[in-house]
Amino acid sequence: MALTASQLLKLMPKQDNFGKYIPTKRADIDGLWIYVTGNKNGEVVKTWKFRSQLGGVDRTMVIGTYPELGLQEARSLANKLKKDIADGKNPFEMRKIENIVKANGVVPDCFKNVTEEWFAKTKGNLSDGQKQRIMASLIKDVFPFIGHISVKDITPKQIIEIARRIELRRVYETCHRIIGRIKEVFDFAIVNEYCDNNPASAIPKVLVPVEHGHFAAITEPKELRKLLRKIYSYQGVSNVVNALIRFSPLVFQRPGEIRSLTWENVDLKNKEIRYFVTKTGINHVVPLSNQAVEILNELRLLTGEGKYLFPSPRNPERPISNSAIRAAYASLGIDTVNEHTEHSWRTSARTLLDEEMHFPAQALELQLAHTNQQDRLRGAYARMSFIDIRKQAMTSWANYITDLINTDDDVKEIAKRYSYKH
Prior knowledge:
The chain is α+β, with helices and mostly antiparallel strands. It is 49% helix and 12% strand.
């Protein structure tokens, strides 16, 4: 329940039998809390804190004290922090960097300043999503350790320590990307005469190699039920993101294709979506379940006047970026490296429709817009010859998902309920 101004004014810490203050806390809204305690002089101190979950971990940040920071001002700040997190930013790491800079003083040619100059001058042509991912990775994994140090004074040892910290999370591809970005910054610094050598140049040779494989995916029905309940309970700041993360499991197409769908691709009367798949060079049809149609009918009230089903909040003429989905998954504590990604719905659906509901494999491959040389030669006939089975598969999958979320029925019974009917 939200605090009122009078409650806030009267809020006092409890005292034990010896008169010592016992800290008290009260929740407000948007992750805002007030912590009330006493200092050594016996004075009551009221501290505003912002709490949120980021990457599955509870984080807390002090944002001010009352009455210096009033109730409405604190709420506005908490709301801004909440929106920053929804946009993929990490205000907790930014605060850590600010504290380091304050403690050590500002160095004009520090790594953070040089990075910001490199970024402004060399990355202007990237999409908003790409820019955000690059800076978010540096803010989280690099700036807290070398951001305040002059580029002339940074050593290979300091950079390899950054790499080893990232490798401890077993995100080896991320580690290679971040070290590559550090190397780029130092190349920029050398050209602009901030330093004479690149301490990151040899680091890639000693990193754990990246093994390229398939996306992690949950295919065990009981675990999938837990995941789906998390996702369908999500209530983020953006209604478009809310719709997207509920729609994606129902259609299980490639994430970039879903995000780029336009309203011209949608035929709600015939309950289908049609679009050209660039990756495989085919015209693809996605039959829509009643659950998917319901989401699109709601979404049409929000974005139907524009081009895209899922437009970017910053520029409606462009589709939403994948960073918004990653941020939503992260806020739900979903590990998108080792557990499940937005791409993983393809594996989950393909596996369970085949192994648990016994749909023909060729129909499922066509529904995933996979294709082989024989299918290319047979063209549209190969794809449309299974359309009735594909419609049944999409309906069964949607009903299967719905029952996993809304019932505690045995998962085997649910699969049997919606198995392939010849």
